[in-house]
Amino acid sequence: MNKLSRYAILLTLAALTGCAAVETVTTIATDVGVQSGALTKAQGESIRRSTQAVSRSMEDFTPEQEYYIGRSVGAVVLTKYSVLSDAKINAYLNLLGQTLAMASDMPELFGGYHFLALDSDDINAFATPGGHIFVTRGLIRCCRTEDALAAVLAHEIGHVQLRHGMKAIEKGRVTEALAILVQESAKSFGSEDVIKLTREFGGAISDIANTMINNGYSRAYEYQADAVSVTILKRTGYNPAALIDMLNVMARQMKPGGNDFARTHPSPQSRIAELKDNSRIALTSIEPPAVRKERFTKAVGHLL
Amino acid sequence: MFHRRYIIICLALICVLFLISTVEAQKIMSIQIKESQLRITPSFLGKITAKLSYGERVTVLQEKGAWKKVSIPGKNVQGWIHETALTSKSIVLKAGRGTVGTSVTGREIALAGKGFNEEVEAQYKKNNKNLDYTWINQMETMKVSPEQMEDFIAGGNLVFGAEGSNP
Fold it and tell me: Are residues A110 and A33 in the same domain?
């Protein structure tokens, strides 16, 4: 076999790895390569192994597993904040939030989207990978209209859609957990595996909760979630400028050094600047229709 | 000689690709969420024609943006479903009880209820006694019906389906 044709085969293989059925194609292609003598058996094996290693990533967690991660991240959030047990507000948040979620690029989650108000003056919100979304009374108070509240909820839906929570899990942990899952995928777990998996599970929950509550996501992630929010607002007929209006109120109400968005998010001013640059939102402040104003006041007026 | 061998290999690879794309055209997919619905139109506001649960398989007939028109094998039902409810992996319920052969790899199947699951959550809860899931369970019961959603959209002068969304 001359060098040229060997390279040609390897190049063909490389090109094929771009398509959806990477592994199937690679397996068959390497088999063909090995049988024809273009590749040694060891070379074939190694190509197969590296393809598998590359494709085994966070994507291998099923929506069901993300749901269970989400439940526990939510339970950790609720050790820091109490629930605002107000049926009227929570019903309204779910009506608004679930409608917005249907207009997102990730409308279907294993257990769906669910929203809950938190009883705190902090300006804060959290979204778990399972679609549990929490928003504090302090943040609701930054919203003067239903459009603004929609902007807040759509930003959180953006974090779910872009899987920012899952991306906060340390890479090593993802590999470790998936390794156990793959080894054991064809049989039931023994109790030792449950203990091992629980350790990785606990680690993943800490990674996500720590990022959400203490360190915050990167500025880039927050800007991305703002961009998703704008998209969802446009798709549902809300005024995207309401996000800027909300951020302006937030800038006035935020306490410097606070243990909330003041610590975990880029400043409202830089988020506004980013929105003006990248989303080109017209700053015209259009009043929402009277019907929308009325139902907003009815649902959350007593909190404002 | 070398050239001939090279051509044969490339032709074989092209055949493989062609076969895969043909198979993809009539693909079977599985529901990857707890419960899902088929609708008469490709929209979340479309009338529901059937309800499906986790792991059920459907045959894809047609695609329109992020929506797929599917049928349920063996049943005379068709409808539209959003692609985020589907996976091309086949989902095996009740793993370890016989049907999963050893030749099947983790990449082709997803085992329902495996990995981070109820059992792992229970163990985690046992290790972290300060965690309370009461409100998590409670919030998961807060569901909005398509009718309520429709009223909410109409009542607030909103639209659904503007600017390339999931109409």
Answer: no
Same-domain pairing of A158 and A249: yes
Overall number of domains in chain B: 1
pLDDT digits (tens, 9 = 90+) for B119-159: 999 999 999 999 999 999 999 999 999 999 999 999 999 99
**Considering the domain boundaries, does residue A134 fall inside one?**
yes
The whole-angstrom separation of Cα A197 and Cα A215 is: 25
pLDDT surpassing 50 at residue A30: no
Of A75, A90, A295, the CB nearest to B136: A75
User: Per the domain annotation, does B146 fall within a domain?
Assistant: yes
Q: What angle do CA A17, B66, A168 make, to 5 degrees?
A: 65
Name, in order, each residue with C-beta under 8 angstroms of A41's C-beta and a sequence gap of 6 or more: A34
CB A213 within 8 A of CB A252: no
Is residue B32 within 8 Å of B86, Cβ to Cβ? yes
| Same domain? A98 vs A156 | yes
Confidence at A179, pLDDT banded by 50, 70, 90 = confident
Candidates B139, B145, B149: best to mutate against A (most CBs of A within 10 A) is B139
- Residues B32-49 have pLDDT tens digits of 999 999 999 999 999 999
Domain-embedded: residue B97: yes
Specify the number of domains making up chain A: 2
Domain of residue A29: give its range. 3-55
- Looking at residue B7, its pLDDT comes to 76
Half-sphere exposure for B76 (CA within 13 Å, toward CB): 0
Q: Among A5, A132, A231, whose Cβ lies nearest the Cβ of B139?
A: A132
Q: What Rg, from alpha-carbon coordinates, does chain A have?
A: 24
What percentage of chain A exceeds 90 in pLDDT?
A: 65
